[in-house]
Model the fold of this input.
Amino acid sequence: MHNKSIQAPQSVVMIRPHHFTPNTQTAKDNTFQGQVAGHTAEQIASRAYSEVTQAVSALSDAGIKVHLFEDEGTTTPDSVFPNNWFSTHSGGHIAVYPMYSPNRRSERRHDVLELLKQRFRVQDIRDYSGLEQDSLFLEGTGAMVIDHLERVAYAARSRRTSEVLLERFCAHFDYEPMVFDAFDLSGAPIYHTNVLMCIGTGFAMIGVDCIQDRVRRQEVLDRIHAGHRDVIELSQQQIADFAGNAIELSGSDGPVLALSQRALASLNSRQKALLEAHVSLLPLNIPTIELAGGSVRCMIAGIHLSERPQAI
Done:
């Protein structure tokens, strides 16, 4: 039996889309989105469906419990990324978030929350989604990378991350906010924090060059080091290849790092060795999903709740 870390959930929620397509409403500020050419909408949707199916199988084989929901609708192109609209926290707490793009707001699902209440101990659900009317947005564990051990919420400023709402979330959930500015290779603000950094139990990966302010960069690094983690610095190109968009999970044979095959291919041998001192690497092949500007971390909503005993 392997010790479980509160940083690395053993259960997750995933959404399998039936009509996947990159979201035109998010393309303006998500420079990670790719161009779709030479394929019909049906081919793209079919490939995305298969990629999620195969990812769920690989995670399940590693001993991770996947609660899989189907999205058969045609109005939620980013539904495959559920980590943006809700998050779960130890002690039985759930947060529901306001989303920047109007067509992402329909991703919020009552049935997902009901399953969490049935299968896990849920004390309360704090719903911030009404703040969309005030143009306040905080897109979950896309906007924030949460250190559950040190109680820190790292957040890169963007139109999807309201600093006011971040402060409110941290006050409600007892986290220390750590805000900074981060930019991609083109000089554009990075749209979601979870594409530039990943916090594991004993390691962290971060695109340090994305944080151009040297003083703030060092403050962020110092705060990560305070948790006695091995820090793996990622290049801007590795960030563009989604190397930062990974998540540590608790598998049946120990901790694993779920990341895309593209992300893994971008890492050098030294980086892989540092990671493998802490986790087994679990690459998932999701090139079609990545056209939407997100990768493995975005697809996985970790469940940081205690399971309810189930009647036999």
Observations:
- The domain at 11-303 is CATH 3.75.10.10 (L-arginine/glycine Amidinotransferase; Chain A).
- Residues 29-34 have pLDDT under 50 and may be disordered.
- The longest strand covers residues 11-17.
